[in-house]
Amino acid sequence: MEKQVCPCGSGKKYSDCCEPVITGKQKAATAEALMRARYSSYVKTEIDFIAKSCLKEDGDTDIDMDETRRWSEKSEWLGLKIHGTKQGGPEDSEGIVEFSAFYVLDGLKDEHREVAGFKKVDGQWFYAEGQVAATTVVRAQPKVGRNEPCPCGSGKKYKQCCGR
Questions:
Q1: What pLDDT does residue 1 have?
Q2: Listed residue (49, 34, 44, 38) closest to 5, CA to CA
Q3: What are phi and psi of 94, to 5 degrees?
Q4: For the domain with range 14-133, which CATH number is right: 3.10.20.30, 3.40.1160.10, 3.10.450.50, 3.40.50.450?
Q5: SS3 for 38?
Q6: Cα–Cα dist 84/150, whole Å
Q7: pTM for the complete prediction?
Q8: How would DSSP label each residue in 58-103?
Q9: Per-residue pLDDT tens for 50-85?
């Protein structure tokens, strides 16, 4: 049986990469490792990990668990790109990871680009805050013209079929 490649893009097996961090068997060694595990948890719909990996300075997170679960489940996750890191190593107490998460939701291809801040508390990394950058949303499929054949395969023009 072939082992599943980790969704984070590391090229490692999921069981050797993000899964131990998500399941709590191992702590993320760096801010980037936590970022990768957080992305993988969206792909795997492990929403509890998203909440647990957030810094709770006032005892609560600002996460809408239902909306986060909906986004995770309904999205087709296309990949993660790490643009750069600043600090966030094993010996640091703070770090920054700039990343893009690519996905398709409701037929629209989007990029979630963020500069994320992480803090280490008692030897464990947490997501602390993020600055989301504006990105361009594009259609996942080409636009169908009214007089073109319907993509459903009926043989009718789009305007006479699914375009009604």
A1: 45
A2: 44
A3: -140, 155
A4: 3.10.450.50
A5: helix
A6: 43
A7: 0.80
A8: TS-----HHHHHHHHHH-EEEEEEEEEEEE-STT-SEEEEEEEEEE
A9: 999 999 865 555 788 999 999 999 999 999 999 999
